[in-house]
């Protein structure tokens, strides 16, 4: 399908977990409230400037900003707003953009969750106890993107979210047809599975 809009997908900046190299998943009770480090703020500022330069070349602007309601993504959105000089009222928060719910693996080692999701048998319907499968995330981000595509046309859309939702959104917008395409893109990591502060442009 031909997209009605142009999309900028931005992962939030660095938190203390990435700065200190902690190989731990965010705890359920504090994950949504983790803030950016100073380095993380600078990462987002640089990506925001990159977006602004792209828009300036075409004499355009960001029309809509959609953001996960977690603190680290909210802070990232505020930095982008400052770079562009637009009012924070332009920022829309959507629960469908939140990070993956790892359920029983929240607060545990990343290796444990990797073994579960990326073990010998990788399927999108692997769902941990009290958590989400990749299919669950894909369903909610599809709902969000379909709604945006139906509602707007010819707009520049900025979405600020987290690694797994962005990976799945990028694949959906690129019309991936099967799980293997998503997994290959995830393993490649170049332009589908973002590091902190990384921008992915889809048009």
Automatic annotation (TrEMBL):
It comes from the Bacteria. This is Phosphoglycerate mutase. It holds the Pfam family His_Phos_1. PANTHER family: PHOSPHOGLYCERATE MUTASE FAMILY PROTEIN. Substrate binds at residue 72. Coiled coil: none annotated. InterPro entries: His_Pase_superF_clade-1 (IPR013078), His_PPase_superfam (IPR029033).
